[in-house]
């Protein structure tokens, strides 16, 4: 099934490229086909001559001219604009209708062998678009390890019972905000990295995070019986960790 999905994706990419090329040649730039063929030939012969210096030079010159031709296409610009508008629309919709994840609790079977593996439903799913948050009622805790695209993630630890020892929250995000609400009797360590954004961890505030990594830890973390380790990384967005 996974191979079929990959093949379908490649097919759609190829079909979209052919349609854009035909539209560009028909309406905007009749000489584009020559520049694409010339750059393609340079790439092909450059690869065949590698690893010699002449082959490398010819290959990268061909790549440069090929990308220049593609980015200069009017139809490609319209296509890119449409993609950006679609992403913005999906992001706006996710703000209006956040998805609430309600975990499903299953009673384990009594007859369990040593090698029996029990599947537990995760609190969050990997999502390209949309906001996710923990339920507003009491829920069963599972460590979080999730990748998201565009949207906010909200985790409220006051509505669950954390196990003794170290609890792990690992979130990778492209664009969006991350909020984690922590009970007062729980110690916390935070490792956060972002390209653009801000970070607020209890009393510590970073109004401007530009391609930085932060490591923050409460004073009693090492000796605490209950503690939370938070790993977050994002391209653009804000991190907020507060007591509740």
The arrangement of helices and strands along the chain is HHHHEEEEEEEEEE
Main β-sheet: number of strands, strand sense, barrel status?
10 strands, mixed
What is the terminal separation in angstroms? 45 Å
Shape estimate: elongated
| Percent strand | 25-35%
Number of domains: 2
The number of helical segments is 4
State the helicity in percent bands: 25-40%
Rg from Cα:
25 Å
Q: Low-confidence parts, pLDDT < 50 over ≥5 residues?
A: 1-10
Secondary structure class reads alpha/beta
Mean pLDDT level: 78
User: What's the number of extended β-strand segments?
Assistant: 10
Give an overview in words.
The chain is of the alpha/beta class and 244 residues long. It has 2 domains: 2-95, no CATH class; 123-243, no CATH class. Helices cover 36% and strands 33% of the residues. Strands 1, 2, 3, 4, 5, 6, 7, 8, 9 and 10 form a 10-stranded mixed sheet that branches. A hairpin with a 2-residue loop joins β8 and β9 (204-217). 19% of the residues are buried. Mean pLDDT is 78; it is low at 1-10.
Produce a short descriptive summary.
Helix content is 36%, strand content 33%.
């Amino acid at each position: 099934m996974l191979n079929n999905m990959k093949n379908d994706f490649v097919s759609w990419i190829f079909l979209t490229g052919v349609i854009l090329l035909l539209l560009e040649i028909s309406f905007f730039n009749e000489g584009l086909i020559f520049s694409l063929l010339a750059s393609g030939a340079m790439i092909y012969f450059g690869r065949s001559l590698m690893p010699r210096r002449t082959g490398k030079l010819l290959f990268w010159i061909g790549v440069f001219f090929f990308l220049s031709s593609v980015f200069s296409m009017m139809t490609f610009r319209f296509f890119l604009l449409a993609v950006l508008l679609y992403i913005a629309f999906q992001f706006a919709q996710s703000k209006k209708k956040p998805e609430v994840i309600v975990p499903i609790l299953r009673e384990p079977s009594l007859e369990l062998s040593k090698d029996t593996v029990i599947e537990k439903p995760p609190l969050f799913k990997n999502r390209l678009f949309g906001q996710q948050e923990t339920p507003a009622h009491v829920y069963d805790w599972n460590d979080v390890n999730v990748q998201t695209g565009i949207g906010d993630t909200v985790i409220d630890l006051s509505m669950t019972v954390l196990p003794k020892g170290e609890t792990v929250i690992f979130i990778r995000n492209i664009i969006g905000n991350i909020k984690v609400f922590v009970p007062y009797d729980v110690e916390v360590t935070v490792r956060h990295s972002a390209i653009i954004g801000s970070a607020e961890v209890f009393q510590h505030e970073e109004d401007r995070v530009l391609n930085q990594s932060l490591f923050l830890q409460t004073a009693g973390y090492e000796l605490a019986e209950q503690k939370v380790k938070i790993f977050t990384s994002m391209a653009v967005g804000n991190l907020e960790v507060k007591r509740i």
